[in-house]
């Protein structure tokens, strides 16, 4: 199965994606990650106003197969979270790059992002071998 990785996003090696809009970062997880997890049954996300730290856990995603930590790719404050997914976590796979976003963060320092992020092509190359 060929997965989609939109070119307008950046990707982490822990399977999160970022959509950058000024200093607002929308964070979600990739189609590949959702496929690996299987049926998602529970999602835990931070509260509005919480601070997240790059490389640190900001929540968890639970499927019938596993429980995985969600890691923030950026330092910042949580502005929004996708409460719809908290009520219906199984819908995360329906539109992971659209309605399936997890949180929106006001980034503290955008300069830190570029050094660890991958393009869609780089991410696809990384996961092809899995």
TrEMBL record:
GO biological process: glycine decarboxylation via glycine cleavage system; protein lipoylation
Domain Lipoyl-binding as annotated: residue spans: 24-106
Cofactors named for this entry: (R)-lipoate
Cross-referenced Pfam families: GCV_H (PF01597)
Positions of post-translational N6-lipoyllysine modification: 65
Keyword Transferase appears in the UniProt entry: no
Source species, domain of life: Bacteria
GO cellular component: cytosol; glycine cleavage complex
Keywords noted in UniProt: Lipoyl
Gene3D superfamilies: 2.40.50.100
Cofactor note: Binds 1 lipoyl cofactor covalently.
Function comment: The glycine cleavage system catalyzes the degradation of glycine. The H protein shuttles the methylamine group of glycine from the P protein to the T protein.
Family statement: Belongs to the GcvH family.
PANTHER family: GLYCINE CLEAVAGE SYSTEM H PROTEIN (PTHR11715), GLYCINE CLEAVAGE SYSTEM H PROTEIN-RELATED (PTHR11715:SF3)
Assembly behavior: The glycine cleavage system is composed of four proteins: P, T, L and H.
Protein name: Glycine cleavage system H protein
Species name: Leptothoe spongobia TAU-MAC 1115
Gene: gcvH
């Amino acid at each position: 199965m060929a997965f989609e990785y939109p070119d307008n996003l950046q990707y982490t090696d822990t399977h999160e994606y970022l959509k950058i809009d000024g200093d607002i970062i929308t964070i979600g997880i990739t189609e590949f990650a959702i496929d690996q997890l299987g049926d998602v049954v529970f999602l835990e996300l931070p509260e509005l106003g919480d601070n997240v730290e790059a490389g640190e856990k900001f929540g968890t995603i639970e499927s019938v197969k596993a429980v995985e930590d969600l890691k923030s790719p950026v330092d910042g404050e949580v502005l929004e979270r996708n409460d719809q997914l908290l009520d219906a976590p199984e819908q995360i796979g329906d539109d992971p790059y659209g309605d399936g976003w997890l949180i929106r963060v006001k980034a503290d320092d955008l300069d830190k992002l570029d050094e660890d992020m991958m393009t869609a092509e780089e991410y696809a190359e990384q996961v092809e071998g899995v």
